[in-house]
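Let us practice reading a record.
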Amino acid sequence: MIDCTYDPRAAGEITRYHTWPVHRQQSVGEHSWQILRILLTVWPRCPRRVLVHTVVHDMPEMGGDISYPFKVLFPELKSAMTKVEHYITAEQNKFGRPEEPHLSPFEQHVFKLCEWIEMWEYGLHEVNMGSRYGETICERMMTVIGPAIHKLQTDMDGLAGSQDARQHPGIPEAAHKYILKRMEQEKTNGT
């Protein structure tokens, strides 16, 4: 018998926002797919290791997905969950979990930006379905997305002429355009 706690396949079925009253539940699998979609839109030539990271980044949440505000309020809870996630990752590795690739700080920053955009987009969709709690998700994510795009642009400016800058042109602008398009789309399709 397989203990699904350590089964990499079951990790995609974990429910996100399980402590929030939302209209539509989202699984870790959907969340990862949505990030992949956004990532490939804003960075079409992103390295394979970033794509692999996107697929596996939340697989250790089989131990539970503690909501963000509580991780901030209780650092010891975040620390304990990090230990749990390391343990689960080791157990999933025995089963055949894809190896977690190492990302450069630049790659990690672009990934995180795309993750925050996905979370904002999820909140925006919730708002359009009538959830006022979705507004909180949108507001929280916008407080980090704007500065993240600005930092990415500053980093790109600092890389001007370097190989990294030549390999990754236009990501901040593409992310900004994506957000504007999504806002327009949700306005047109929203209730």
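A brief commentary: The chain has one domain: 4-189.
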